[in-house]
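Researcher: For the record, we're logging two predictions in this thread. I'll number them. Prediction 1 follows.
Model: Prediction 1, sequence and structure:
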Amino acid sequence: MTIESAILSTYPQFSYRATTFASDTFWYSRRMAVRKHAIMGQLEMLKQTDRYIAFTLKDLPVYNQPPEFAPVPRHLFWDSDIGKWIELACYFLAEQWDEVIDAAVRELVTMIAGAQQPDGYLNIHYQMVAKGQRFTNLRDMHELYNCGHLIEAAIAHHEIYHSDEFLNVMLKYIDLIEREIGPEGIRGYPGHPEIELALFRLYNITKNQRHYDLAKFFITERGVNKGEFFTQEAINRGEKPSKGAALHPGDELLAYSQSHLPILQQKTIEGHSVRAMYLLTAVADMVRLDPDLKIKEQYYEACIRLWNNMVNRKMYVTGGIGAMKPWEGFGIDYFLPVSTEEGGCYNETCAAIGIVMFADRLLRIRPEASLADIAELSMFNALLTGMSENGDAFTYINQLGSSDKDPSKRYKWFECSCCPPNITRNLGFLGGYLWHWDTTAAGKTDIWVHQFSSATLEFQASDSTMHKLVERTSWPWTGEISFDARLTDADIYVRIPVWAGDNWEFYAGGDVIKKSAFASRGINVTDGYLLVPAAFIASVGGQFAVTIEFKPRLLFNHPLTAQDNVTVARGPIIYCVEDFDHPWVKDHFKSLGLLESATFTEHVQPDGSIFLKTEAGVLLDHEFQEWNSTTNATWLSSKFSLRSKRAQTGKQVDLTFIPYYFRDNRGGVGQMRAALKRISP
């Protein structure tokens, strides 16, 4: 079985192979940190924690240990941790072979195959601990989630090793799941989506309609009769339907897993943020693949409705999502606290990854620059901050403000360690997020440039024509982007970021092409993409450039958040302050404001990144002191009113802003803040 060339551009996990990063580019350095440190570091953690040998089905000490987060067993996600590491390893092995990594992949696959039961079943927890109870708690126990990540690992393994060994294991397991859980079985669906998007990817390889139909069933069955399946499943276990592993309020437990209503009836995005993103990524896949026009229209509308609710009312300025720490998910509209002490802010790394996945699928349905803008925001900030500069430490939560309870710190591993191998596997196929190509009804090839990096794209179109596009840029630090399209006859669409406004220029043939002359050259801007036609490209020698103005700017909260904060941005990068540059900070910068009139100087670092400095910081005299008076209710005093606090001038201080993703890389005690109090001059 081989992967057909026609599906190469359908998923970033396939199309990454068409991209080669230049060695002096930003993303190359991030991916090299994974290659040099993260792959082997995570392999070592798999071994230290006994995950590595779990599929030998030996009795391990962890099986008798009490759960850290009851009632979820400590080992519940081990299957997926192993799957994600195998997938990660395969992406990097595709570029550079490593005997140690190869040996580990081979040994893990052998252990997985050896653990499979005769009927196809495969799950560490139910084979070692809860024997005889399989498929009795799809809501909480992650059987199908774990299966999904093993499927994705098997696809990557199949692609790199040209072997069906791992893939056949998963095909046998899928057959069992279809019989016992699908339309002819108990008619269930997973509490945590993942298997759906994995099955759609698998379908692209096998062309087995049953794989597609099972994924579609899991999507369309979800939430039927207001989540009746999960309700009855809990009753069958002798539990109250509102009692679950999740910490979500009981009455909303079904919303926690987006199973409170069928997707087509959901008006707002709710529940666990990672689950929501994985589910909607799969829904977008179904929209792309389903031949039924009505299905396409209805589910695409649902995707956009929920995307807009998320982006416009429930997303942080870093591109992170999930205000509520107790259930790792969404709160009510506009509820976006900065830190734990202020009421929330979770922003799990995996949720940011999910945003990028979801946006990627939507872009392949209908390219709109606003989708790529949000993907870029999440990639450079909420996602990238999840890994240290060296690739040896990671975050699970990514708040905009630190606190004593949740300092700005990274760790090598976690009890539930879904995030470390997830961010690294995504960096493995990052090239697939930069651009995609398709063929029009007239047989013409279009190339859509969504993200910017010095890189080369080379692919064979469906008509067997070879295409090569070379991009050069210092993004995200400068806005000059040049293209060499001499070896392609495609129309090229280049995203113009919304934050650029009208502050960009188009160059070709050594001259600026004025926007007023676009129409006469066949050039136009549609849905935020600059269309550069092949005929025009040929007429100017195959080379052109876009220059976007980069300068610091201030971002303000929506009034309905009831937070009068300001955040510093430059290009796609969100900035923060941390204690390493400000050793005087004692309160996690909660008493720090920033003048609206702030101006900044730019300071280029040895690696090319840019720090910002300003003299416009303000230490507020009375901001955030505890209101713990006993009898005189001092908080009623006008001096504590919102308006008077914001109008205070206090002590003006110098500030150094660093990229949010770069926090906790130089030492310090973990005090950081990206959203400062807005001070009117």
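Researcher: Logged. Prediction 2.
Model: Prediction 2, sequence and structure:
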Amino acid sequence: MAIYYSRLSLVSRSRGHSVVAAAAYRAGTRLHDERTDQAHDYSKRKGVLSAAMQAPAGASWALDLASVWSRAERAEVRRNARTARELVVALPAELTEVQNERLAQDIAQYLVDRYGVAVLVAIHQPDAHGDDRNIHCHLLMSTRVAGPDGFGAKVRVLDDRTTGPIEAEAMRLRVAERINTALAAAGHAEQVDPRPLKKQAQDAAERGDFAGVVALTRTPTRHQGRAASAMARRGGASEIVVDNAAVRRDNVAVSAWGAGRAQVLRRVTQTRAARSVRASSLNRGDRLRPRNGLGPLNAFTRATGADAELLNAQAQAAHETARVERDASEQLLDLMARAANQHASAIQAYLELLNRSGASAATAPSASSSAMYSWEVPSRRSEKGFSGARAARTSLQHARSREEPTRGRFARAVRRADRGPEELVHPESLRPPKWKPLTRRQWAEYRRSQRAALRGADANDAQTRQVEVREADSGARAAHETVQAAQRAPVDAMHTSETAHARTAPNALMPTASLFTQLDDVQADLARAMDALVRGMSSPSYRPSMRRRPAPS
């Protein structure tokens, strides 16, 4: 059976890869890397069936395998550049070698036409120690457009995070279409499907292909790669090889288990088909308007894969339980409908009799009421009771009609009373302003204005402190000069008095009444100066001057 496999990968310098070495290995030849001046020789490699280049029209230089990949290396300057992409495709084992070669060339031409790149087509035969059906091709394509004068712009459609996955999925579909076309042209009925196994199994279950469901209910294995394959050839066992072996054993067990359960799925499908035929034979009106308002039961989805039988049995039991409950509900609804009809007839007869009781006491009840109840001709006392009952019923209806508006007014009054204290506590003028989020620009302007206001306040404070310091310093100096003048005044007065007395009366005594008066004045001035000095120094804005006074000469 033909299977589908394709893998798209990158050749990147960040991983230590060289596109010249990759091309030499895929083609099984010797190539020289002009960028690193290094030769990559894989001419002794076995298993290469064919290797050829394909390029756009007008880029004949790209058909030279010996030079095209060296030019691809020189076109990239970054140390982590992506120099090539590789698409590995599994070719159908049902086709011949020539047919597979034409198929690989067709896929390569699609890549050339789609992206305008140069493509190396290398077909490898199965490994001697592996599956003999593993014939595959390596499509090594450049990451730049191949033009007439060399490599041009990068092909970014595969690198983009949005368009890259879409292009990769479209590439998988186009490769599958070409493989199916080649199989059909060769006369094979097998077809490949690029979709995941889960979706394929779901489609097979819907078609009733139970054998396909069993075959597709398996876990896919992981690609081993070069390192794991080389380790396996040397006799070692890597983690991927061990995991793949365990997956294959599980798949075999699941296939054996599923083959025995395919008959169960077939019977279930036949039962569902029979039920759908019975449902379609019903009247369209009955299906659209089910009796008593109960619609049809929802069909449950059948499970596939492991433990599918147990899950389907549980779902079937739940479905049958729901059906029994639905039938019981329909019977209960029918019984309730009949009882409601009987009670409605009795009430209608009672109301008719109640309405006719005031008109004629001898009027007989209706036929329907007579059939259900044995009525007697109402007496005068029963007529009075009927009239009282009718009046009470009218009063009750009137009271109920007035109850709803009264209840609404009471509820609105309660709400207004609840809002009153809140409005008194939180009037409109005291409510905080509505919070509004600010943009980044508004926040920046707000912080800028805060910093400017802070700088202005600091400058005003500094200026005020300087003025206060100057005033306090001036007051202290004035007080100091007054004290010094007061200290010198007695000495000057004594000297003046002595000089005058010596001139007038050398032998007279110095102290006189005028001298004592002057001393009193000087002492008063000294006391005032000291008070001024104390007040200036006790002021909170006083800052002593730190300037050094010149030393007295």
